[in-house]
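Quick one, tokens below. Sequence please?
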């Protein structure tokens, strides 16, 4: 009976050993698979890092370009503001000139009226004296 127990025990041990060897084989295959996956992930990480660097450089370039555009716009706005101020000054000057011209026209009209009165007075004086021109 001892032999039977020993044989069964040996069978069990052998089956366990086979299972362990199979498990070890599976672990080795899994390790290979993990190593390959780790290599692929490393390549992807390098690719992503390169793309991040490229995008960072592109963003820096865009920031610089936008900064230059903003500075250009600010300069144009300053120039336009100066132009608007000059236009406002010219408009005020033109208004003053128009007022002065109106005064000159009024004075001229008054002068012509006075001249007409004087001529009329002279004609009347001449007529009264009987003189003719």
């Amino acid at each position: 009976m001892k032999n039977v127990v020993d044989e069964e025990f040996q069978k069990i041990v052998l089956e366990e050993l086979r299972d362990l060897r199979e498990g070890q084989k599976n672990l080795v295959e899994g390790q290979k698979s993990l190593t390959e996956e780790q290599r692929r992930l490393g390549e992807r990480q390098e690719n992503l890092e390169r793309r991040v660097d490229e995008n960072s450089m592109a963003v820096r370039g865009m920031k610089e370009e936008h900064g230059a555009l903003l500075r250009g716009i600010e300069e144009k706005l300053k120039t336009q503001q100066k132009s608007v101020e000059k236009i406002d000054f010219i408009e005020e000057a033109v208004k003053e000139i128009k007022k002065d011209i109106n005064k000159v026209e009024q004075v001229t009209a008054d002068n012509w009226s006075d001249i007409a009165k004087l001529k009329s007075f002279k004609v009347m004086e001449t007529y009264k004296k009987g003189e003719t021109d």
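Helices lie at 2-129. Residues 2-129 form the longest helix (128 residues).
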